[in-house]
């Protein structure tokens, strides 16, 4: 067991070195990636793929994003919202939520697939990450605990969900990939009073953001 832990710790360091080569330089973000045991969000033989820089299927047509994607989205959020309450849309495996919790945020996460919600909730609790998890339509956000200083959407949206915009706190920032079903552009939306400022970044391909204010599930 000790030997396995040493190997996984070494692999995490190598993953972080790769992220640095790709241009991720925020020390807080890199330290969170060193802290969170990514392999525990995989099962069986899939654990061997945990520290590769690629996305990996987790069932139900969903994936755990490649480390670089998670690191970039997290960096975009941290640079505009260094602390406070963060809403994650799309819990998935729970890895992104764990990274946010390791950064010291108060994390709320919504997942629309019940089996993934239950699995991630149990794992995050077992690992000691205090993440509030909810099963439901993520495009509608989490009104009970709004507003949020940050919102991070881990699925590709056809447009900005109005419900999420309304749940952003003053000066809050939302990181969300927006575009068609085959490719989306990473977008950062920052609230300034009644106005919203937008910045555009790289293109990615995410699973679709399904829900009342996202894609219709019957399309896929």
How would you briefly describe this protein structure?
The protein is an alpha/beta fold and 220 residues long. The protein is 30% helix and 27% strand.
Could you characterize what this model shows?
Strand 1 and strand 2 form a beta hairpin. This protein is an alpha/beta fold. The protein has six helices and nine strands, in the order H-H-E-E-H-E-H-E-H-E-E-H-E-E-E. 30% of the residues lie in helices and 27% in strands. The N and C termini lie far apart (42 Å). The chain has one domain: Vaccinia Virus protein VP39 (Rossmann fold, 3-Layer(aba) Sandwich). The model has no long low-confidence stretch (mean pLDDT 95). The chain has a seven-stranded mixed β-sheet.
